[in-house]
Amino acid sequence: MRKTPARASSAPRLRAAFVALALAAVTGTTLAGSPASASAGSASDAGLAKDTTQFKGVNWADPRDNFADDLLQLSGLSTSDSYKQTYAKASRIIAAFRANLGANTVRLPINPYTVNGAYWKSYRGVIDAASDQGFKVIVSYWEGTGAQKDGFIDDQATYWPMWDTVVKAYKNDKRVYFEPMNEPHGYTETEWADIAAKWLNTYKSVPRNRVFVSGAGYNDHVTSVCSDPRLKGTYLSLHHYGFWKSYATYDEWVADLKVRIGDCANRTVADEFGAPMTDGLNYNVKTPDNNYINYVQAVTDTFRELKMGSVYWPGLRTDDTYSLQTLIGPPSRPWLATTNQSGADRLAWAWGRGKPVKG
């Protein structure tokens, strides 16, 4: 998820983490599990594709940024809808992601409230609709809000039963991928790797090449999880945002991104990255004095260069200025419109299509 100014309580930790990473990039020192130490984990793993370009996607989010202490309600859907109604609406939105953007992947949130109760039957309509249209589906656990939003699993007693249910339902669907936790920033690198290893050991029936292990912290670097031999064979998820710096040049953004990836690009998918899309910025023209344009051009060029998959945040989230799509049409038959064509163009470029930016 994108951190907003309202999340001031986490700002000191964010700043500390990003300063450490920036210093590493500038001084040549390495993070724990840094590129220098990651070679063992970044070698081509059995079962993984040679790169991650097959993941061309968007996030579909709850208007509350997916943090909820109750049922998740994705933008355009209703928790009162039946499975049939949910499936029908989701089918149209998934089709619009493909028609408007050329996407083939969608990342969806889950939490225990949504999975461990009656609504799970309806919510499955979203996953099923995407899979039935040939989409890859990344299912990721989100923590709650308020005091629960601390980077830790909220409740082990509900977390594991949630995954029991999800894995049982989708372990045989080759299009569904499992991400044990979004942005596990409450844990140290070692603690998070231990939890990820426990997840893999608990669900041995899930092929490792259908698991996304989040980068440590706010998913802000993958080098530590990449170097852990217990996590071999999994994909790694990275998050990267332009608001992390008040200003950086194109080259500085490229360097910032690459230090977070190390030599692990062949396993890494950027399953969150984003920038303002509703304020008229033109991402197709070089504009060196604009931080966000520098950022978007740098990361999309780098994803393409490194043959990395990417999943934009968000493809659809109501009232989010970063949202690349917006709902149109009647609520019972939703469709989507693109909020910024230049943003869509840069996404296509990251995915191996389109044209480079103009000078």
Structural class assignment: alpha/beta
Poorly predicted runs of 5 or more residues? 3-44
Question: Proportion of β residues?
Answer: 15-25%
Average pLDDT level: 90
| Global morphology | globular
**Looking at CATH, which topology would you report?**
TIM Barrel
Give the biggest beta sheet.
Answer: 8 strands, parallel
Give the count of structural domains: 1
- What's the arrangement of strands in the largest beta sheet? 4-3-2-1-8-7-6-5
- Helix content estimate: 25-40%
Distance between the termini: 32 Å
Order of helix and strand elements from N to C terminus = HHEHEHHEHEHEHHEHEHEEEH
Give me some keywords for this one.
TIM Barrel; eight-stranded parallel β-sheet; alpha/beta; 359 residues
Topology:
Layout: H1 11-27, H2 39-42, E1 56-60, H3 83-101, E2 105-110, H4 112-115, H5 120-132, E3 136-141, H6 156-170, E4 176-179, H7 189-202, E5 212-214, H8 216-219, H9 223-226, E6 235-241, H10 250-261, E7 268-274, H11 291-306, E8 309-316, E9 325-328, E10 335-338, H12 341-350
Parallel strand pairs: 1-2, 1-8, 2-3, 3-4, 5-6, 6-7, 7-8
Antiparallel strand pairs: 9-10
Overall description:
The protein is built from twelve helices and ten strands. With 359 residues, the protein is an alpha/beta fold. The chain has one domain: Glycosidases (TIM Barrel), CATH 3.20.20.80. Helix 3 packs parallel to helix 5. The longest helix is centred in the N-terminal third of the chain and has 19 residues. The protein is globular and about 55 Å long. The chain starts with 10 loop residues before the first helix and ends in a 9-residue tail after the last helix. The N terminus is likely disordered.
